[in-house]
Design brief:
The complex is a heterodimer of chains A (113) and B (89). Chain A is mostly helical. Chain A has helices spanning 2-29, 33-36, 38-62, 69-95. In chain B, helix 2 (30-55) packs antiparallel against helix 3. The termini of chain B are far apart. The chains are: A mainly alpha (113), B mainly alpha (89).
């Protein structure tokens, strides 16, 4: 029983960290700003959600009673991540950042790494 | 099992933070830097939760929640400042 709980916690921790790393690789490698916005807003949020679920399972079985603080963090992040992404995209549209139309890395302003 | 999973998760999150730091320092436009800071605070929340599991302490939840609130307000304030030139209108 304890081994199964530990296995579940370990799986959620490593999966969450992997998704956070995937979001950061997205910010690192993608060519222009509008495509860079995809990584952190989806993948990193999912990663933090996974780690919070792992922490909730861990403290529910090792502390006293059911621990639900982490669900609060997850809920707040799942509400605020699309809002901040929307604001960033609106600011980028207002500043008229150039999109990379061809899919290649040929944009003069925002494509150099 | 946890003794091997926690260092692996720390290593992955550290690599993620280094990539974000590269984007923060290099980012061609100002919005790229704001996006990098946004990602960095979310990854910092993940690191705080991981430290809470590692040290078996529940103190880190409140710190993570405060970082979440403050980071969201910072991102929205800087984006609105770039949009309108003014935060409160």
């Amino acid at each position: 029983m304890i081994f199964f709980i530990e296995l579940l916690v370990s799986f959620f921790l490593v999966a969450g960290a992997f998704f956070a790393l995937a979001g950061s690789i997205g910010t690192f490698r993608l060519p222009d700003f509008f495509s860079r916005l995809h990584g952190p807003t989806k993948s990193t949020t999912l990663g933090v959600g996974g780690m919070a679920i792992a922490s909730a399972i861990y403290f529910s079985f090792h502390g006293e009673g059911i621990s639900l603080h982490e669900v609060l963090i997850t809920l707040f992040l799942f509400i605020t991540a699309p809002v901040s992404a929307h604001f960033l995209a609106k600011a980028a549209l207002h500043q008229q950042l150039h999109q990379n139309k061809s899919g290649q890395q040929g944009d003069h302003r925002s494509s150099d790494r | 099992m946890l003794n091997t999973a926690i260092p692996i998760a720390f290593a992955l999150l550290t690599a993620a933070q280094l990539l974000n730091l590269y984007r923060l320092l290099k980012g061609p436009t100002l919005l790229d830097r704001i996006l990098a800071l946004d990602t960095m605070y979310i990854d910092a929340i993940a690191m705080f939760i991981l430290m809470g599991v590692y040290f078996h302490s529940t103190v880190y939840f409140e710190a993570a929640l405060i970082i979440a609130v403050m980071g969201f307000i910072g991102t929205v304030a800087t984006s609105k400042f770039l949009m309108r030139g003014d935060i409160l209108e």
